[in-house]
Amino acid sequence: MRTMAVRNLTINGSAFASGGTFHHVTVRGDATIRGDVECDRCKVFGSADMKGAVTARKLRLFGQANMDGSVRAEKMDVFGEADIRGHAHLQHLQLRGMVQVEGSVEAHAIRGYGELSVSGSCEAETVSLTGVVRIGQTLNAEQVELSLYFADSSIKEIGGRTIRIKRGKTWKAVHWLTRLSPLTATLVADAIEGDEIYLEHTKAAVVRGERVTIGPGCEIGLVEYRMAFAQDEHAAVKEKRQR
Questions:
Q1: 191 CB-near residues (< 8 Å, 6+ apart)
Q2: What's the pLDDT at 172?
Q3: Helix, strand, coil share (%) of the chain residues, nearest 5
Q4: Predicted confidence (pLDDT) per residue in 136-178, tens digit
Q5: Which site in 49, 173, 200, 235 is 20 to 30 Å from 159, CA atoms measured?
Q6: Among positive and negative, which fits the CA dihedral 45, 91, 102, 190?
Q7: Which pairs from 167-175 meet CB under 8 Å and 24+ separation?
Q8: Domain extents for the chain?
Q9: Which DSSP letter does residue 180 get?
Q10: Rounded distance, CA 215 to CA 225, Å?
């Protein structure tokens, strides 16, 4: 990232602004920014419609943001909803709400609670999420830990070194909302491949790993394992093979 300009962009209330290079960008209210934005820090309190690519060292969203281009940030915090109509290149994504990405995601670490939807693939070192994850292509990470909640998740393919998928526990703060019950949340995938794999409430055509544990609520077509295999009595596996 280039050295940021000294000027700041501050929007209070409802307004339109042009993109550019700034030190700090702050939106308090309802703003539309036309053009690419490059800044050290961007904060949105309310709603922002950003008609271009966004490049920032820190990007914090409290409310709703629509971004028509790609997003690059060292740290992105979402406390609300973000809609990215491009690729996302992030070091750290902290989620407390919903993020939708029409392209692909590259990140070092993705953590948090809520819903992550990616049309393409997701590449990361660590993915640790509670909620709903929907990825149209491949989720590839060294460590994958998903706690299923709210609704069903779907990922075409999962690859990683350590993969743990389980059903989330009831949150006391929202247990009275039956639509947020974790009791029926499942993951659907075509293929899951890793070294250490533990699955609960997962439907997959193929699971391959060094050590594989198929926990309760799973429906698996084929398991291929190399070192060890275990199956819960409340799981269904059509075929298993030791490689």
A1: 156, 157, 158, 204, 205, 206, 207, 208
A2: 45
A3: 0, 75, 25
A4: 999 999 999 999 998 999 999 999 999 999 998 654 444 434 4
A5: 235
A6: negative
A7: 167/200, 167/201, 167/217, 168/130, 168/131
A8: 7-103, 121-243
A9: G
A10: 15
